[in-house]
Amino acid sequence: MTIRPTFLWGASTSAFQIEGAAHLDGRADSIWDVYLRAPGRVSHNDTAETACDHYHRYAADVALMRDLGLNAYRFSVAWPRLLPQGRGAANEAGLAFYDRLIDALLAAEIEPWLCLYHWDLPQALEALGGWQNRDIAGWFADYAALVARRYGDRVKRFATFNEPCVFTLFGYGLGWHAPGIADRAALHKAIHHVNLGHGRAVDVLRRDVAGASIGAIHNRQPCYPASDSAEDAAAALRLAAYWNDAFPFPQAFACYPPELQEAVAPYIAAGDMAQIARPVDWFGLNHYSPHYVKAGSNLMGASFGPPPAEVPRSAIGWPVVPEAFRDTLLDIHSRFRLPIYVLENGTAANDIVDASGSIQDDGRIGYLKAYTTAMEQAIAAGADVRGYFVWSLLDNFEWGAGYSQRFGIVYVDRATQRRIPKASARWYSNMIAAHRASDDPAGRHNRAEE
Ligand code: GCO
């Protein structure tokens, strides 16, 4: 058996993608609310005003997870719900929502994993420069302290940031995500200030939460050159520096990857690198597929190419390469020497409800089988992987793709908000049950004990 009895099997979501209630109970705009108001930015001009209405349906959603046998759940807290202006006065109604959610999770014996930042920066802070303003490291630390003091009696697992490489690169470097900025200096400032915010928040969480288990969630994908040309090979190294290393390197080793050093250097003050490289307890990994990189004219000099023709692709065109997942886990293990939690993995499909009312998402089942098998291979080869969280529990608001891409193991009917577990949810549930049964025939360890 490669999977230990304490292994966590969970699901991940994020606040902006599922909660809705965008203007209820004192929540103020995030950069995404504002970004989506300009027409044409998102498929069908979808908004997240209602999303999955999880704000009102959280109890049923927690019950669903319990029924599936999940023992962990990663969610994010919406900064603009807790601190509508990003700092200053806290919003009690917003704080109370996460009390209810956390209490429901604990009652269902599901371990809460709380992520502080999944991209929904309060607009009031963007107006002050957002991640380009160095002061944001302190604002983020104050927000972390509010969260730590309110929930730290019940929550022990804290992530600082979800995929910092994606929201800095897409939001400040390429202009594809909120706040829609495409500027070289903006990108490099944002990278450094997010790293500083991470280190400051780690200190706050350690100080304020007894027994805290802290990490950050990084997207890591192998960056393969799209051709044999020297240009593409060099571009792949540059993209890898931004995508894979811009955050884990400073956070673990107190240095930027050499490709970024010169661009970030102007923003580094004395003491910053030590402040960033605070010890953490685990490495959070989000992984879907590799990149095939071409030389390009954007600020990285690298663009995302199509995969070679022989590489299988998902319904939305993402390459399906489970070996790349196995290799990524082993690479993280050898570089960072930390317990690894896979905090996102999954796939989108064009799911439809059939005449019998069910959703037979065989493509997703195939993907999840292949990727969890690859994970087991990595564990057998020595990687210290301690949990797997599928992305995602529910069909949700998929950023620039709006509702056009369904990533859930549970189908959400957009008109009625009705939840229907897909065949993949049953498959996942059965796989978890089978692991538990073989780990623990006497049924003593059916919940995580770490
Ligand atoms: C993230 C994500 C999720 C996406 C998922 C599928 O953490 O990066 O962007 O929010 O929904 O990765 O694209």
Give the neighbour order of strands across the main sheet: 1-2-3-4-5-7-10-11
The set of bound ligands, ions and cofactors reads: D-gluconic acid
Sequence stretches where pLDDT stays below 50 over 5 or more residues? 444-450
Helix/strand order:
EHHHEHHEHHEHHEEHHHHEEEHEHEEEH
Structural domains: how many: 1
What is the alpha-carbon Rg in Å? 21 Å
If helices are DSSP runs of H or I spanning 4 or more residues, what is the number of helices? Answer: 16
Mean of residue pLDDT values: 96
Number of strands: 13
Q: Major sheet, described briefly?
A: 8 strands, parallel, barrel
Structural class: alpha/beta
Overall shape: globular
The CATH architecture name reads Alpha-Beta Barrel
Distance between the termini: 19 Å
Under CATH, the homologous superfamily reads: Glycosidases
Strand content bin: 5-15%
CATH class: Alpha Beta
Features:
disordered C terminus; single chain; 16 helices; alpha/beta; binds D-gluconic acid; 450 residues; 13 strands; TIM Barrel; globular; 3-stranded mixed sheet
In a few lines, what is going on in this structure?
The protein has 450 residues and is α/β, with parallel strands linked by helices. It contains 16 helices and 13 strands. The chain has one domain (8-449): Glycosidases (TIM Barrel, Alpha-Beta Barrel).
Describe the structure.
The model is unreliable at 444-450 (pLDDT under 50). This protein has a single domain, classed as Alpha-Beta Barrel (TIM Barrel), CATH 3.20.20.80. Strand 10 (340-344), helix 15 (362-380) and strand 11 (385-391) form a beta-alpha-beta unit. The strands form three sheets. Strands 1-2-3-4-5-7-10-11 form an eight-stranded parallel beta barrel, surrounded by six helices. A three-stranded mixed sheet has the order 6-8-9. A two-stranded antiparallel ribbon has the order 12-13. By secondary structure, the chain is of the alpha/beta class. Helix 3 (54-68) packs parallel to helix 5 and helix 7 (136-151) runs parallel beside helix 9 (184-208). The protein contains 16 helices and 13 strands. 41% of the residues lie in helices and 14% in strands. Bound molecules: D-gluconic acid. D-gluconic acid is lined by residues 14, 17, 162-163, 166, 286, 344, 391, 398, 407.
